[in-house]
Every structure is written in C-alpha cells, then in structure tokens.
Amino acid sequence: MTAISRGMAPLGGFGGRVRRFWRAQPPFLQLLGVLLLFFALAILLPSAAVAKVMAPQSSWPLVLFYPIGCYVLLALGLNVVVGEAGMLDLGYVAFFAVGGYAMALLATKQHWNFWVIVPGGIILAAASGLILGAPTLRLRGDYLAIVTLGFGQIIDQAVNNVGWTGGPQGISSIPHPPDIGHLSIFTYQIGHDRPYYYLILAAIFLVVFLISRLKNSRVGRAWVAIREDEDAAELMGVPTYRFRLWAFAIGASVGGFTGVFFASQQIFINPGQFTYAISVLILVCVVLGGSGNMPGVILGAFVVAWLPERFRGFDKYKILFFGIALVALMIFRPEGLLPSRRKKAEMADGAGGGGMGAALIPASLEVDQ
Question: pTM (2 decimals)?
C-alpha cells in the first residue's frame, strides 16, 4: 500500500460510514436534509461577493429571479412530463403564457389580489393542460410532440390577435405583489430585486417538495412504469391514460405558477416574451441536467440561464458555443450532468443508449427495429 493510499484510507472509511448512514434514513428525511442544505446555500447566493463573480455586468438578484429562478421552476414542471412520464412536450411555453396573462388580466381588469391570482393562474394552466391532454394523450412519441408544438403556436397566435389580451402591444401597469409587513425583503417594487428572488425561491422549494412526495407515491411509480414501457404497464393494470393526464396537468400548473410570478415582476407582458425558443430552452435544461432527476434538472436550468448572463461579452457567439456544448454533452455524457441512478445504470448497460428519444419510442417499434 502506498503512502497516498494509506493516507486516504481513513477518509474513505469515514465517507463509507456517512454514505451508509445516509442510505439508512427514510426518503422523507433525505429530502428534508437536501432541502435544508440547498436553502442555506440559496440564502447566501444574492450576496455582493457572489455577484462580483457570477454576474459582474448585471443585477445579480434580478438574474436570480429571471431567468435563473423562472427557468428552474419551469424545468421542474416540464420534468414531470418529460422526465417522469416520458412524454415529449414542445409547447410548454403555452402554460407559462397562460399564467402570465392570468396575472395581467385578473390584476388590471378585475383588480384581484396577487395571492388570489396565484391559485387562479395555477387552476387555469392546469385546466389548459387537461383541455390539451384529454384528446391528445393517446398519441405517443413524435405525434404527441407535434400536437404540443401546435398548441404552443395556437396560444401565441391567440394572444397576438385577440383584443382583450392587448395584441402585440401586450398589457402594462401590472401591479406588484402586496408588501408583507415593513421588512425590506418583503417589499415588492421596481428596483427591489432581492424580494422577488426569495419569492421564487419559496415557490421552488414548494414545488420540489410536492413533486418529491408524488414521486414516492403510487402516482410516481405509475409514471415510471409508463415511461419504461407503457404497453407493459397497461397490461399490468396501470390506467396509463389517467396518469399521463395527471402528469400533463401537474406540469402545466407549475408553468402557470411561474407565469404569475414572472408577470408580477415584469409589470408588462407581451407575446414576444413567450416564444417557442423558451420551450426549447426549458427542454434543454431537463435533458442537459439529467431527465427525471430533480437536482440534475435544477443544475441544468441554472447553467442554461446563467451562462449567457455571465459571458455577455460573447453575445454574438453564444448560440454557437451553446450548440457545441450540447453536442459534446450528448457524445460524452448522454445521461446528463447529474443523472438519476436509474438513468446512469441504463446508460451503463446500454439500455438507454437512445437518450431522450429512446424513452419516447413505443416498445412495439423498438422490437421491430
């Protein structure tokens, strides 16, 4: 045994004991521990010292809200559809738009309170997901992707041409959320960026907790069965259509949830803020980070949203670098930056060699090939 290996042995033994202790804990305590650690780091993230490194040319707390915070929340919602249930959604930005316009219209036309509009936006977005999903979720693979892409374009054309949405001019004078007490971290005004970061951070924690509970329930196990082999799941008695519809509605509700926060901070929205490119970027966040693994999805969304802000000087070449990075990732790490143990094992065994597309191809086609 070399000196280096002898020196590393106690550390390895300690690490092994920590891992065994961690694995012995129930899933709820593991989730709680991860959330507490993440919360402690997230509270320190907007500090001036971090800002000098992460975004020297931008308002770092504002960047943490949008695009980073909103992308993380959107990616968590899309991950339910793509990563958990195995359905490819190319029109996810439509639900983001539904939440944003719900906030704008209900606040400016009906003068509803922000905290009443939040559940209203969630319900409207979930209802939109059900309306889209009910007639289309019997489709699979590319066919479902085409339908969701069309739905996104329908929403875009609707808000551009319907008079009560403001058309291309959009809606302005959207009110901020009401202040909570007299604390500066709960004062929502123009130029006060940090309160919005803490607001979206609380929303991210809530969504992570709820989706984690779903993943460890009968619903989550049904999603895994559907994603792995929908035909086999149906033969085993899983009501696949119902659980696919559940996934679509839950993902849509998270998109609407994000749209409400986004519109309240922007105080002005128009159709140009809800383009197809947003759907593609959020899908990239899911695939880049590790489809089906929430920590990986959060990491992927952070990287996709942060890098353009950090390297603003290379704005002309960012799409080129972004494309090269994605190609390299698909070649050298197709499972994503931080994949789940299941996905990593599939890739190692060769079962997941098809990447995201393989998970979405019906089993019958795979046999024929």
Answer: 0.85
